[in-house]
Amino acid sequence: MGEVLEQFFIFVGLLVCLVHLVKWVRFSKCIFLHFWKVSPRSFLKSMGQWAVITGAGDGIGKAYSFELARQGLNVVLISRTPEKLQAIATEIEWTIGSSVKIIQADFTKDDIYEYIKEKLKDLEIGILVNNVGMLPNLLPRHFLNTPDDIQSLIHCNITSVVKMTQLILKHMESRRKGLILNISSGAALFPWPLYSTYSASKAFVCTFSKALQAEYKEKGIIIQVLTPYAVSTPMTKYLNTNMITKTAEEFVKESLNYVTIGDETCGCLAHEILTLMFLSIKGKHSEPDPVMGLLQQCVSEVAPDSLHGLPQAECQHHIVLVG
Ligand SMILES: NC(=O)c1ccc[n+]([C@@H]2O[C@H](COP(=O)([O-])OP(=O)(O)OC[C@H]3O[C@@H](n4cnc5c(N)ncnc54)[C@H](OP(=O)(O)O)[C@@H]3O)[C@@H](O)[C@H]2O)c1
């Protein structure tokens, strides 16, 4: 009996060591890449001549458009407001010299893909950034108090990722080369009360992305999902930046160093550390889940629906993580 117990404890000990080793390897990989960029500067350009970015008119999508152009790619900008797209196109062409195409499309609709397909015809697309997304409520709100138009959120956050991937992946497959970056959110890593539809739509992006990477890795395609927390953009009403809240430019520049790190990343070291902290709290206890407990406590303390109409500064501390 004593021997069995001893073996059991050895087994448990080894298991705990293994879990910590895996966490440590993931963390060190991120630190390593932070200081010693592994993918050479030419890597992104080697994927193909063109990069396609959805939701390119502002925020993170705009930052990807500029950065990928700086890395030597021509860019296709797809978004809602043509004036914003035209201004970005002109600036890229003048300051960087890359070619730019713009496509006006509203991703809350599902009848736009034939038009986009036609516009993308004959381009050698090496990179697709599925960035477009909408957050129905910036401030926390109960599900029944969120806008009725759930279909728009589903089209914009879910259908866009699937349909754009379907359009472009088949050409990448035949070239046996390509990079797809799917912008999910830290809100996908745990179920976030008061952001339920957004959080669930982003969890879809994570699962879809990781399953697809397993299918297409052997064919030379890199599919990576990014799960950032707060980034200062119009979506987050330009939250003040700090060690955690990045500017879109900082976030994009750093995240492009990590495209070969694996099928999922937060995109920046600060957010990676935050996730590890969440996971370690989650890992230590099993019942009740302390992360969910914390979230539920916040929900009851914040009295969410009363926040609406408060000045931005007073609301900032309520929106630390969700984006
Ligand atoms: N910001 C964050 O803290 C954060 C954190 C985690 C994940 N994310 C994710 O990152 C992505 C980009 O976020 P962001 O903060 O950069 O967003 P943003 O500031 O709201 O910018 C979004 C861009 O997408 C365009 N867009 C929005 N809805 C569209 C639609 N229905 N059809 C076509 N274009 C549309 C906007 O068009 P207009 O130019 O016409 O306005 C804008 O150019 C989203 O998927 C978001 O969920 C953001």
UniProtKB/TrEMBL annotation:
<dbReference type="GO" id="GO:0004303">
    <property type="term" value="F:estradiol 17-beta-dehydrogenase [NAD(P)+] activity"/>
</dbReference>
<dbReference type="InterPro" id="IPR036291">
    <property type="entry name" value="NAD(P)-bd_dom_sf"/>
</dbReference>
<keyword id="KW-0560">Oxidoreductase</keyword>
<dbReference type="GO" id="GO:0047045">
    <property type="term" value="F:testosterone dehydrogenase (NADP+) activity"/>
</dbReference>
<dbReference type="InterPro" id="IPR002347">
    <property type="entry name" value="SDR_fam"/>
</dbReference>
<keyword id="KW-0521">NADP</keyword>
<dbReference type="Pfam" id="PF00106">
    <property type="entry name" value="adh_short"/>
</dbReference>
<dbReference type="InterPro" id="IPR020904">
    <property type="entry name" value="Sc_DH/Rdtase_CS"/>
</dbReference>
<keyword id="KW-0752">Steroid biosynthesis</keyword>
<keyword id="KW-0443">Lipid metabolism</keyword>
<comment type="similarity">
    <text>Belongs to the short-chain dehydrogenases/reductases (SDR) family. 17-beta-HSD 3 subfamily.</text>
</comment>
<dbReference type="GO" id="GO:0005783">
    <property type="term" value="C:endoplasmic reticulum"/>
</dbReference>
<keyword id="KW-0444">Lipid biosynthesis</keyword>
<dbReference type="InterPro" id="IPR051019">
    <property type="entry name" value="VLCFA-Steroid_DH"/>
</dbReference>
<protein>
    <recommendedName>
        <fullName>17beta-estradiol 17-dehydrogenase</fullName>
        <ecNumber>1.1.1.62</ecNumber>
    </recommendedName>
</protein>
<dbReference type="GO" id="GO:0006694">
    <property type="term" value="P:steroid biosynthetic process"/>
</dbReference>
